[in-house]
Amino acid sequence: MELRQLECFVAVAEELGFVRAAERLHAVPASVSRRIARLEAELGLRLFDRSATHGVRLTAAGERLLPEARAALAAAARVRDTAAGITAGTEGLVRLGTSRAFADRVYRALDVLAARRPGLRVRLERAPQEARLAAVRSGTFDAALVRTVRRADGVALHPLWDEPLIVALPASHALALDLADGEAPGLDRLARLPLRLVPRAVNPDLHDLVTAALPGWTPGPPFTTLLDTLAELAAHPEPSWTLFHPVGPLPPTPRIAFRTLPGLTAPVSLALPADRPPAPPLQALLEALTAMAPAGHPAAVTAMAPAGRPAAVAPLSAVRPPVGTPGPHTAAGVGRRATSAGRPAEVAGPCPAGAAAPAPG
Q1: Exposed (0-12), middle (13-18) or buried (19+): which is 187, by Cβ within 10 Å?
Q2: Which end of the chain has the lower number of beta carbons within 10 A, N or C?
Q3: Residue pLDDT, tens place only, 258-274
Q4: Which residue, 95, 88, 172, 75, is CA-closest to 138?
């Protein structure tokens, strides 16, 4: 069965004549008649009564099939319209690999994208960074947000923004370094302290970023998790320090000073397949992400509050969680973020307050 046969059937049924139907379809009557005959033979039904006295009339079978033929033609038209929208970048679905660490920027970018391209949907897929890059290479993800990656095989990296790194060190030693309240330490001062840095095998991008900026760095005790490492920093008799990237407010950890590290930031990029230019939907997403104004960096503070658990933060040097099967986070999963009516983008909800966020890539 061909769509052209259905078009001829509907035209003849509505015009009640082969000549008028042929004019409407810009065809000749004999061609329309042949297509109707082939359709009737394929269906095993007579669709029209043809008589010299009464002209052309639908049979009972033709009347029953006419709404279905119209629905099939309407569906085909929607397919064509959607395909045209995808080609133009106004329709379609983008599968974006991400992590909780990028939630604020992603939500704001999706708001911009929804206003510009209301027919374009973005499905967020959470996975560790190496899994995100692998998914872009394999085509499972259309794009992925990554941090501190300078180069990667099989993907093209489009720079988006730079994010700060936060230094955590014992508050008593911050005073010993003669740092005023809120003053950021220089790398030369920090280089003399043992650094709790993730091994290169776990996070090579961060490791290389930090060691390149601190060629004479002093290795300290191993980094485990952010909560445990901050507790060790506060309790250990020998001062040391670590780095992490905040997702939310800085944790009110007793006896720990937090400072924004000057002169060293973590670049964030959008990873796309390297073998072809960005398709229009991906180009629209890239423009929305690029349009985001730099988020406010967390203020440098010294946390001397009573004992309490740190708020939701994600260490850049954290050991990565086990690779799980990435999946969409929709209303049936983590949640759909509330926005204006008609927002098409599917997004993941924020990390619950007081819970340690998973390590970002």
Answers
A1: middle
A2: N
A3: 888 777 888 899 999 99
A4: 95
